[in-house]
Write a structure and sequence with these properties.
This protein is an alpha/beta fold. It has two domains: 3-29 and 180-259, no CATH class; 45-177 and 263-294, 3-Layer(aba) Sandwich (Rossmann fold), CATH 3.40.50.150. It has ten helices and 13 strands. The strands form four sheets. Strands 1, 6, 7, 10 and 11 form a five-stranded mixed beta sheet that branches. Helix 3 (45-65) packs parallel to helix 4 (80-90) and helix 6 packs parallel to helix 7.
């Protein structure tokens, strides 16, 4: 774990209310649990509708992006959906450069090897195990092509709203030349890597949907553990002692919620703040696919 990650953990655990950054759950085990949620949880509709929408409009999306021969996959995880795009690009290119980006280096290495085995020499796989902003800057500095296709499935919605703008702005710059066990994975990782002794039985997991109708905001979900009674825990490697009174909350994400829900006008407003504009979009009952360009 690099120094910046430790700084972010300390920031959240010293805050009031206390939180653990959403990205922290995505180590190898958390990433595996996320895949289980996507594939087996019958209540988690988002993944299924994403796949359905992509399948329905894949030919139309390909008309917009077929000139790209480099595919950057932010938060690649298990790249099942991305493979639909890869297959389309390989229908017009003999070889495609695939750059999966994921914060979990161990899980990324495994999935990179898996996808190499599927596509062989048709796919030049260049994994980057970094946080998104760092990875995007590296890609921008190391490549000169202006035909990059960047896909970002679902991860945008798990970031605070202003951070979404930061990431979208960095994406623009780069365009140059769930279940309980899943949420608790960050608690287990704190114990394993940082010497934490948090007893999750002292807490109750809760969530809420916060609805915003303004074009300048979006709806989102808050997820947290709420203390059942007064308790104290230590994080030895961060030199921290965190105290909770009954009813205090420990959020599983930064301020501003996760799993954001947008209207098209909210998406348009968000993209406009990052100097991006919508080329075309497609929607079904629950999700949208949006192709954007630089302004």
């Amino acid at each position: 774990m690099n120094d910046q990650m430790k700084v972010e953990l300390q920031k959240g655990l010293k805050s009031r209310p206390v939180y653990i950054p959403a990205w922290y759950r995505y180590d190898e085990e958390g990433s595996r649990l996320n895949d289980v949620c996507l594939e087996q949880c019958k209540w988690y509709y988002f993944h299924r509708f994403e796949v359905k929408l992509l399948t329905d409009v894949l030919d139309e999306i390909n008309d917009c992006v077929k000139e790209s021969s480099m595919l950057v996959d932010l938060g690649s995880g298990n790249p099942y959906k991305t493979r639909l795009i890869i297959d389309q690009l390989l229908s017009t290119h003999e070889r495609v450069t695939y750059v999966p980006v994921d914060i979990s280096q161990d899980y990324l290495n495994k999935t990179a090897e898996d996808i190499k085995a599927i596509y062989g020499n048709k796919l030049d796989v260049k994994p980057i195990g970094e946080e998104y902003i760092t990875a995007l800057k590296d890609i921008s500095l190391s490549t000169t092509t202006d035909r990059k296709l960047i896909v970002w499935f679902g991860s945008l919605q798990n970031l605070p709203y202003e951070t979404q703008v930061d990431y979208l702005t960095e994406i623009r710059n780069t365009m140059r030349g769930y279940n309980e066990q899943f949420h608790l994975s960050s608690i287990r990782r704190l114990s394993r890597e940082m010497g934490g002794n948090i007893d999750s039985s002292n807490f109750e997991i809760k969530n809420e949907l916060v609805v915003n109708s303004s074009d300048s905001q979006c709806s989102y979900i808050n997820i947290w553990m709420e203390a059942r009674h007064n308790c104290v825990f230590d994080i030895s490697k961060l030199d921290l002692t965190v105290r909770f009174e009954k009813g205090d909350k420990l959020y599983f994400h930064e301020e501003g919620g996760i799993s954001c829900k947008y209207t098209i006008e909210q998406i348009r407003h968000l993209l406009n703040k990052a100097s991006l504009e919508i080329v075309d979009f497609w929607v079904n009952e629950h999700v949208a696919a949006v192709v954007v360009s630089r302004r």
